[in-house]
Amino acid sequence: ALRRVSSPSASSHLLRRSYCVESKPERKVAVLGAAGGIGQPLALLMKLNPLVSSLSLYDIAGTPGVAADVSHINTRSQVAGYMGDDQLGQALEGADLVIIPAGVPRKPGMTRDDLFNINAGIVKSLCTAIAKYCPNALVNMISNPVNSTVPIAAEVFKKAGTYDEKKLFGVTTLDVVRAKTFYAGKAKVPVAEANVPVVGGHAGITILPLFSQATPKSNNLSDEDIVALTKRTQDGGTEVVEAKAGKGSATLSMAYAGAVFADACLKGLNGVPDVVECSFVQSTIVPDLPYFASKVKLGKNGVEEVLGLGPLSDYEKQGLESLKHELKASIEKGIKFATQS
Ligand code: NAD
Ligand code: LMR
Question: Before 145, cis peptide (omega within 30)?
Answer without folding.
Answer: yes
